Amino acid sequence: MNLKRYHYILIIGSIIILLSIINHIAVLQREAAKNEASKTVVVKKPAQKPQEPVQEKFKFREIYDVKMESKKVALTFDDGPDSRYTPQILDILKENDVKATFFLVGRQIHKDPDMVRRIYDEGHEIGNHTINHPNLNKMSPEEIKEEIEGNNEKIKELTGHTPVLFRSPYGNASDEVKKVLEENKMLLINWSVDTRDWKAVTPATILANLKKEVGPGGIILQHSFGGKKVRSTVKALPEEIKWLKEQGYTMVTVSELIAGENK
Question: I want to staple 203 with a disulfide (CB 3.0 to 4.6 A). Which of 19, 169, 214, 235 is the partner?
């Protein structure tokens, strides 16, 4: 083999080896890019947005009614539960497919825990109405906290949920009461419609009071415990519901009413 031909073979061989090396490097680069892309997908996978803490959303309010155009109202019942009138009220609400809000007293909860579970299980809302139904304005800050926070614990034990709504006995709520509510992230719920059922009036009077004072966003005060006078509440309730529906009203819980407020 002459020298010239040998050089050609050597050059061609070198080119083949070089091309092989380049190809190998390219393969390695593609594999590296693929691996990097795979890592990038994992890193860039969108994480679940953390839920905004409740305390950042909460703002204490004292509510008498809710501003809205929609013809919605909230039926509320204080002072229960009991084993006589509360079941009758629940039966009427169930028959008419209506949800209400019950502001419960701790000493009554102790007597009728099963009724608390029934209220909750049937889809009604439960609010706090203290343990002993005292005049909170005459109590010390420590006593106020016990009345409110102690009843929250009782309700949570039976339902698994801590109330966010509070109604003060007799409608009395000093600055100290409001401070405790704010600390516990609770809203103070009053009323815009007083049926006066606590005065032992007739069913007809209860209905007349409702008709006179109700309006969109109204919160209606009634009772599910309190002696014989609650019989008028029970008798009036079907007529109240019938009349409200005839006027185009929908009855919802207080929280649902607040959720529909004009912003």
Answer: 235
Residue pair 235/88 in contact by the 8 Å Cβ criterion:
no
What's the pLDDT at 123? Answer: 97
What does pTM read for this prediction? 0.78
Given 112, 129, 197, 223, the catalytic residue: 223
Is 223 one of the catalytic residues?
A: yes
pLDDT at site 56: 45
**Is beta strand 72-78 parallel, antiparallel or unpaired with respect to 218-223?**
parallel
Catalytic residue selected from 78, 82, 112, 197? 78
Q: What is the mean pLDDT, run by run of 10 residues, along the chain of 263 residues?
A: 56 63 61 51 37 55 96 98 98 98 98 97 98 97 98 97 97 96 97 95 97 98 95 98 98 96 79
